[in-house]
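Subject: Predicted fold for Maleylpyruvate isomerase family mycothiol-dependent enzyme, 243 residues

User T.R. writes:
Posting the sequence so we have a shared reference for the thread.
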Amino acid sequence: MSAPPDPTEPSARRLTLDLARQGTEFFARELQGLTDEELDGDSLLPGWTRRQVVAHVASNARAIGRLAQWADTGTETVMYASMEARNAEIAAGSILSSDALRESWADSAADLDRRWQALPDDRWSVPVRNGQGATIPVRDSIWMRTRELWIHTVDLNHGAGFRDLPEVVLERLLGDIVGAWASRGDTGRRLTATDSAHDGYGDPDAAEEITGSLADLAAWAAGRARSGVVSDAGEIPVAVRWL
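User M.O. replies:
I've generated the structure tokens; pasting them so everyone works from the same file.
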């Protein structure tokens, strides 16, 4: 198995930017396929309609754009002033008319891409804070946006599934999730994809091994599905929350 790309290299950054732009196109296609009435239907996120998912993804673009602004100007510009501010921004977006909501989403995605294109190479290592308050180089916010786009397109509940995500996104997503579990001391499971050359995610000596296709494992680990995976310990557990 080849080593993962070094995130500090411009070529790796460009690869992730390309995945983010593909994710934007993926989300746009699914959104375009929804009627105005379907926007009011249920998403895969408990208690959220599809229009709330769209408002959230638009709000996320603006929040990550604020991190790009921080890196560009050197003036601290946080993603959200508070969790209450974040929730209020999503709520305000979700009650827009269908046309205004679609326009808000498209404008937010275009504005973020412009900010990324304008950011000089020497500013991508500037430290900023993510939504959990952790300090990260701003280049890491590209992947934050990428996974939001691909996962929340599935959450629109309109036919897209994890099987539609590129292999590189699925692999990196599983690495993120298992890494988040391990950081909290949950190392009891190892995930092994039956259709990937990757040698598995998690401790090789873990008490439980869960197997399935790369897409099914990612869907299960992200809390979106329980089908298609098998545990050598018996019944498939509900995946531990990762964010």
